[in-house]
Design a protein that fits this description.
Elements lengths: L2 H22 L3 H20 L7 E4 L2 E4 H9 L5 E6 L3 E7 L7 E6 L2 H4 L17
Antiparallel strand pairs: 1-2, 3-4, 4-5
Amino acid sequence: MSILDRFLKDQRAEISSLKQKRRKEKTAADKAKWDAEIEGAEMFVRKFMKSKMEPAKAGDIIINNKIYEQFIKKLKGFEVEIQIAEDKLILQYGKTYGSWTGTLELYDLTSHFEPYGEVTKEADLLWPLM
């Protein structure tokens, strides 16, 4: 079972627990309070589904490698600079080096995956880090 599978399993168990608490409520107003919390938890889980997420190490941080790889494919013909800051990977791109027309920031996901073990996949950072 991968680190992402373990993370999703725990999140789904939390949603199930919230739904059980909702069922115990008597009034519609009390149930509505739980509905908002359940919806928020379900939206959170959707962001981490396997079709959208692949945690990978980039230096000392963990990023979503699927977003990184999809974005890199679109940057053919662009100059790129990658920096790893304390809590994010910063990818700047443009037609000429130093004249950046766009930036992608991928934030550190370590806090989400740290309790579930070590992320073994390394992100394939195509350009030298600055």
